[in-house]
C-alpha cells in the first residue's frame, strides 16, 4: 500500500474483497520507551484490532472492521504478489527465517524487516473502505494535532487554554456536531493511548453530516502504565460531550463487568486472542474513570446543560 509512513500491504481475498494489512512488529508486552516520540513509535497490529472492538463497545460505529490473522509470508505474499519491488525486499535472515521490509517512508529497510517464524507472521487486516470513485472522502487536518517535531514539541493548543473558543469560530467546528465527534474520537484515543491523530477523513457525499472515520489506531496500546491526559484536550478545553456518549461511559463504568473484561470478551474469538495483555485491559478501566472525572470537573465548573449536549 502506498501512502502512510509505515509498512502496509493491500491484500486481495479470493472473493475480491480487499484489506489493509499491518504486520506485527513487536511483542504484545513490549512497552514504548519513554524517550521515544509518538511519531517514531512502531505501529501495533493488535492495537488496530483492539481499537475496532473498543469503538463498538463505545457505540462509535465509525471504524472499518479489523481482524487478526496468521499468514505465511512465503505462500501468501512472496509467491502471490506481482509487485516486483515488494519481491525484491524479501530475504532469509541469519536465523533462517523469511523476512521482508516492503517500501514506505519509515522503517522499510533490512534493519526493520518483518520476519516470520520461519515464515508465519501475525497481522491485522482492516476491511478496505469503498474505493474513492464510489465513496469519495475528504481529509481534514485535526485541530488538536501535535507538532511532529523533536524541537518544537508543543502545539498552539498545548500552550493556549482558550484554544477551543478560537476553534469553534472556524468551519466546520462552528457546528457543534463535528466538535462532539472530535470529543468522541478523543475519548477513544485516550482509552487506547493514541497520540497520533494528525488528520481524519469523512465521506464527502455526506458533507458536514459525515461522521469522522476511525482509520489508523495502530499507535494505541504502547504504554500500559501511562495515561496521556492531553489526548483529552478537545474534551477539557471545550467542556462538551454528546449526551449518548456520556450516558454510555457512565453505564460502562457502573457495570459489574468492567470495560476491559468486555473488551477481552469481545476479542476472544479473534485468531490472535489474547489480543491485549492484562495490563492494557486494566489501563482501559483506569482511563474510563479518568474520562468520567474530566466530564465531572467540567460540570462542576459550568453546568450540566452546557456540558452534556443532546440531540446531536
Ligand atoms: N481500511 C482502509 N480503507 C481505505 N483506506 C485506508 C484504510 N486504512 C488505511 N487507508 C488509507 O491509507 C492511509 C494510511 O493509512 P494509515 O494511516 O493506517 O497508515 P500510516 O502508515 O500510519 O500513515 P500515516 O503515517 O500517514 O498516519 C490512510 O490515511 C487511508 O487513506
Ligand atoms: Mn498513521
Automatic annotation (TrEMBL):
The keyword Manganese applies. Mn(2+) binds at residues 43, 216. One of its GO terms (molecular function) is metal ion binding. It comes from the Eukaryota. Its cofactor is Mn(2+). InterPro entries: FAM20 (IPR024869), FAM20_C (IPR009581). GO terms for cellular component: Golgi apparatus. ATP binds at residues 6, 22, 43, 126-129, 201, 216. Transmembrane segments: none annotated. The active site is at 196. Belongs to the FAM20 family. This is Extracellular serine/threonine protein kinase FAM20C-like. It comes from Lingula anatina. The gene is LOC106169568.
